[in-house]
Specification:
By secondary structure, the protein is of the alpha/beta class. It folds into 3 domains: about 110 residues, Rossmann fold (3-Layer(aba) Sandwich); about 150 residues, GAF domain (Beta-Lactamase, 2-Layer Sandwich); about 140 residues, Alpha-Beta Plaits (2-Layer Sandwich), CATH 3.30.70. Strands 8-7-6-11-10-9 form a 6-stranded antiparallel β-sheet. Strands 2-1-3-4-5 form a 5-stranded parallel β-sheet, sandwiched between helices. A 5-stranded mixed β-sheet has the order 13-14-12-15-16, with helices on both faces. α6 runs antiparallel to α7 and α7 runs antiparallel to α9. The chain is globular, with a radius of gyration of 23 Å.
């Protein structure tokens, strides 16, 4: 599993020994890791390749102590013995490289630890990462160019198969609580919409949808005689699961890296938006609830930390031009505003109502300069627009509320200006 060219990665086990899942040491050793304790690590001249910390529960004080030097330490993966779905998000927000809550699937854990080790050994800004961005941009342009929805999904699985060297890739439409999924695209079949999938036979798929995290199917469920692992990735759009992506590499191939999973996640989200029309329904733009904005910001924070990406949050204010006692005219004006804004967005972008005449926009993989250019462009089409911008990474941001506080302050500065009317959180 460690692959050619990698020595046995050294993993330091710490935390609560009583919280370790049964068979953890054996699974790590069989996966090719060399396990060391704190004493051996202190005596060694070189640091371990990864830190694996097991905890009974998500104690915020202890997590902060453990992760205080997360940027300077080897990547730390945190395991929680409690089945708390919010515990991993808390650890990730404090700087953990990865985090899982019980029940722990040991093959998936080994794959995640190896991915974190490989990320640390491979420098950022590689030609592969450039190809990732180009692949996403090309795919989004193709999706907007008039393909039928299921043709978009077929293009997705084909492109992922080529980019990641997958033996198999399929896109399954399903939602939380459903017992059946529809396979709308399969890399091994040129047809679309050709199969139903009984999810009761694959509890891992239901768990991935329910928990909104990537899981690995055991070898016996893959339908393959080889040893490759099938990865199940939920596709989340506007805070809701739209389906799952099933990916299997060639037999005996190493697990997909974090950069590869990041590419798959971005492409799958773009495809899911295209499948849903990518835009508003005929009776007017559908605005996500504020809760969807909170969920999307949390997801972008976790993705940005995990894959070393940037993103921007923009708060857009447009002056009202209708009488306060004419709600129908105000509704039409607002629908027109949302429609114009959406026409300038990419498929992966997100827009939500923020009350009054304000819209909140999440622009993935966009730094502050790119967000400013977008606002300047939208101001050429809409009069009376002011904006606030906050870009992540930002030293004052650890949770979504930090982003919202900063962008609101930036918007106030923007509205106070007389010329540019764009405030940027410094």
């Amino acid at each position: 599993m460690t692959g050619a060219g990698l020595a046995r990665p050294r993993v330091l086990l710490d935390g609560d020994a009583s919280a370790r899942p049964d068979g953890l040491e054996r699974a790590l050793t069989r996966a090719g890791f060399s396990l060391i304790g704190a004493v051996a690590s202190a005596a060694s001249e070189s640091p371990p390749d990864a830190l694996l910390t097991t905890l009974q529960s998500a104690d915020p004080v202890r997590l902060r102590e453990l992760l205080a030097r997360a940027d300077a330490e080897p990547p730390r993966v945190v395991l929680f013995a409690s089945a708390d779905p919010d515990a991993p998000a808390g650890a990730l927000a404090l700087g953990a490289a990865d985090a899982l809550a019980a029940p722990i699937h040991l093959p998936e854990l080994c794959a995640r630890v190896l991915a974190r080790v490989r990320e640390r050994q491979v420098p950022h800004g590689t030609p592969y990462e450039t190809r990732v961005r180009e692949t996403l941009r090309d795919f989004v342009q193709q999706a907007r160019a008039g393909l039928q929805p299921e043709e978009v999904a077929l293009a997705l699985v084909r492109r992922l198969g080529r980019a990641l060297g997958l033996a198999h890739c399929s896109f399954v439409v399903t939602r939380a609580g459903e017992d059946e999924g529809r396979v709308i695209a399969d890399s091994a079949d040129d047809r679309t919409g050709h199969a139903r999938l009984d999810l009761t036979r694959y509890p891992e798929i239901a768990e991935a949808v329910r928990g909104r995290r990537t899981l690995a199917l055991p070898d016996g469920h893959t339908g393959s005689a080889g040893s490759a692992v099938m990865m199940v990735m939920p596709v989340v759009v506007d805070g809701e699961v739209a389906g799952v992506l099933l990916m299997r590499g060639p037999d005996s191939a190493p697990a997909l890296s974090a950069a590869q999973l990041g590419l798959a996640e971005s492409l799958a989200e773009a495809a899911a938006r295209a499948l849903d029309g990518g835009r508003a329904a005929p009776d007017g733009p559908r605005m996500p609830a504020p809760a969807a904005l909170d969920r999307r910001l949390q997801e972008e924070l976790e993705r940005a930390r995990r894959y070393s990406l940037s993103f921007s949050l923009v708060l857009l204010h447009a002056n009202g031009a209708t009488a306060a006692d004419d709600p129908d005219a105000e509704s039409r004006r607002r629908q027109e505003l949302v429609g114009r804004v959406r026409s300038e967005l990419r498929l992966p972008d997100f827009v939500a109502s923020y009350g009054g005449d304000e819209l909140a926009l999440v622009l993935p993989e966009t730094a502050a300069d790119g967000a400013r250019r977008w606002v300047v462009r939208i101001r050429e089409r809409l009069e009376g627009v002011a904006a606030g911008i906050v870009a992540y990474p930002h030293p004052a941001v650890t949770v979504p509320d930090d982003l919202l506080a900063l962008v609101e302050a930036a918007l106030r500065r923007g509205r106070a200006q007389t010329v540019e009317r764009i405030g940027v959180a410094e």
